[in-house]
Amino acid sequence: MQAKETKLQDIIEGTKQYVIPLFQRTYSWTSKEWDVLWKDLVELCEMETPRTHFIGSIVNMPTVSVPEGVAKYLLIDGQQRLTTVFILLALLRNKATEKENNDFAKEINDLLLVNPFKKENDFYKLMPTQVDRVSYQNLINSVPNKTENQITRAHTFFEKKLKQVELEPEKLKTIITSYFSVVSIVLDADDNPYLVFESLNAKGRALTQADLIRNYFFMRIHVDNQEKVYNDYWLPMQTALGESLTEFIRHFLMRNGNIIKQGDVYYALKDSVSTANATDYLSKLKKFSVYYQKLIYPELETEIHLQKYFRRLNRIEVTTAYPLLLNFYSNYADGKISKDEFITLLSTLENYLIRRFVCSVPSNQLNKIFPIVYPQILSKHSDNIVEGFKTVLQSRGYPKDNEFFLRFRETKFYGGGDRQIKTKLILETLEEKFAHKERVPFDNLTIEHIMPQTLSEWWQNELGAEWEETHDLFLHTIGNLTLTAYNTELSNDDFPTKKLTLNESHLELNKHFADIPKWTRNEIEKRAETLAKQAIEIWGYFGQENSSPTDIQEVTGTTPISLSILGQKISVDSWRDVMEQTLNVVADLEPEKFEIIAHNFPRYLGKDKGKFRAIRQLANGYYIEVNLSAQSIQKLCYQAMETIELTSEDWNVIVK
Fold first, then answer.
1. Which of 115, 201, 338, 361 is most buried by a 10 A CB count?
2. Are residues 419 and 485 in the same domain?
């Protein structure tokens, strides 16, 4: 990139052409901007010794258009001021012609306005956008314009100003060319114009990478074909996807395994597009944009079962999988896979994401996992895409049944961010498992805590001596959650009152409470186990070497012998040791995450030892409550690790 301050004359003299991006926003300056420029001109003309006047930046990059001709520069920034300057120069030329000052008129025309020895479009030093082009060319050619737009309005504005004030045309021309100063920024072919423009364009309508990509395409399409190609391919995509267009192009480029950052879309695409393939590439892009539109707007999908899964996946926030889904949809559209196979692929993806969510596997690696899945399927499993997909995913952080079953019972489902959306989907799916012919609509249902978030004295007595521990560790777990339309009515009611309301529910989930006399820790755990077994049936393990939920060893009565956390392996003799060493390692290696745990679990660790019953002191001075059962310690550790986004790969206990 080359940047320098220069006079405007250096910008426009010589055989060259500045091309305003095709199908870009039109010339849009109004009398407000024109008046400011005119007053600056008059002030400078009235000075005996004019000063240099800075009018902004001109950002451009050399480009090749079809057909090739004069040296062309894509005008990325500076369209408004440069167009206005050319309008002024054309008026000065016309005024000189009227006064029969033909040499001066020819000087302006041949040196500043046109390339006199070139033909057709190459004749003009400025090539405006499609909408403005005819009006501008008529102005340059001294042909009356029949329609009115901002180009013609600017011409009329300055024409009146020139009649109102007696200024020497020669001095006006000198001020414009020699005293108007700009910062000229010329980008190299390898520069990313979007990033440059983004840094310059802090105000006004932001230029998107899709704008630059569109311009890059149409500079490589013959001018005779541009209108048709634009209407057939680009405009439908732009209309359908709107602000999502740039992100679609990014996902399209990532579908073959590339990892592309959001700021590098233009830069990544330009290496794939040439004059020879521009139209075909746009055609393919348009084809995939239809698939993408259905993925983000499932109501446009006419196949009802596909629409259902698109809706479900969007609730799980599956954006990172769009490059992969574009490939699957293309396979389906081209007849390479059947509708049933496509549905299996979608359900497999949901299965994978739900299990990871339940087991708190961080999602920040998905944007690196999904783009490379399809190339791996093609290289090793091209004969069976469905089974290949399962095989690839099962080695990419896919929890097995024992972990899924345990975490389904223990994890905090209810929380901030998108956890409530995902939890509601899980509860809806558990309800749908009963397969009633008359299904209850879910839209007006919300998540209800049976044991409420704020405990009354009645609830404290109901839960018993360990009510604080029960409330802390079981409040947001699946065993304590259901769906209801009576959330406001239920509020903090006692359990008998809540049960009466739940008995009126048409949901099978709520029939569970009909024969239960009380709601304590024991009842929450039993219901969590029942729902966990149902979840394993719904989102069954699709890999090899699975373990059965019946093989899971409960921690009560076990003795831990080894703790693995954040790459460290520590010998332990009790579950209290597990809790102490877990928090010591987090405090040492991730002190900020330790503070998050301390904030979220004040009932179990803090700096005031007087509020705990039985204590141990950590290396950093904090005290922890250790008067807990083995199961409570395990649950607390699970939930603490989940809070700081550690998984079973980061934290694991071996027992005997």
1. 361
2. yes
Residue 463 and residue 289: Cα distance in Å, rounded? 55
User: Are 538 and 568 in a shared domain?
Assistant: no
Q: Beta strand pairing status for 72-77 and 53-63?
A: antiparallel
Q: Residue type for 456, please?
A: S
Instruction: Report the predicted TM-score, pTM, of the whole model to 2 decimal places.
Output: 0.74
Q: What is the DSSP string of 538-561?
A: HT---SSS---GGGPPPSTT--EE
CA distances in angstroms from 562 to 116, 307, 559, 568, 572, listed in the order given? 85, 47, 10, 10, 5
Say what the pLDDT of residue 464 is.
93
Task: Yes or no: say if 434 and 474 are a contact pair by the CB < 8 Å rule.
Answer: no
Strand partners of residue 615: 625
DSSP secondary structure letter of residue 610: G
Q: Describe the strand order of the beta sheet including 605-606 as a list of residue ranges.
A: 605-606, 623-625, 615-617
SS3 content of the chain, % helix, strand, coil (to 5): 55, 10, 35
CATH number of the domain that residue 596 is part of? 1.20.1380
Domain span at 336: 209-403
> Is 396 found in the same domain as 257?
yes
| Residues 319, 225 share a domain | yes
Tell me the pairing of strands 72-77 and 180-186. Answer: unpaired
Beta strand 446-449 with 568-571: parallel, antiparallel or unpaired?
unpaired
Question: How far is CA 63 from each of CA 188, 196, 220, rounded to the nearest angstrom?
Answer: 10, 16, 9
> Length of the chain, please?
656
User: Number of folded domains in the chain?
Assistant: 4
pLDDT value at 194 more than 60: no
Q: Match 């895409």 to its residue by tokens.
A: 385
Predicted confidence at residue 477, as pLDDT, reads 96
Helical H segments across 226-365, by residue range: 226-229, 235-241, 245-254, 265-270, 278-296, 304-315, 322-333, 339-358
Q: Are residues 426 and 546 in the same domain?
A: yes
> Do residues 574 and 429 make contact, with C-beta atoms less than 8 angstroms apart?
no
Residue 461: what are its φ and ψ, rounded to 5°? -70, -40
Place of tokens 């000075």: 47
Interatomic CA distance for residues 633 and 601, integer angstroms? 12
- Residue 253 makes CB contacts below 8 A (sequence gap 6+) with 260, 265, 268, 269, 272
The rounded distance, in Å, linking the Cα atoms of 76 and 631 is 63
Same domain, 177 and 267: no
Each residue's pLDDT tens digit, 242-301:
989 999 999 999 999 988 888 888 888 888 888 889 999 999 999 999 999 999 999 999
Sign of CA dihedral 628, 631, 634, 640: negative
The strands making up 560-565's β-sheet, listed across from edge to edge, are 568-571, 560-565, 651-655
Please tell me what DSSP assigns to residue 94: H
Tell me the Cα Rg of the chain. 34
Looking at the structure, do residues 446 and 390 belong to the same domain, yes or no? no
Pairing mode, strands 126-127 and 17-19: parallel
Q: Report residue 281 as tokens.
A: 């590439």
Burial of residue 643, with CB atoms counted within 10 A of its CB: 0-12 exposed, 13-18 middle, 19 or more buried: middle
Q: Which of 177, 200, 223 is the last residue of a domain?
A: 200
Same domain, yes or no, for 391 and 417? no
Give the end of a domain, one of 403, 423, 443: 403
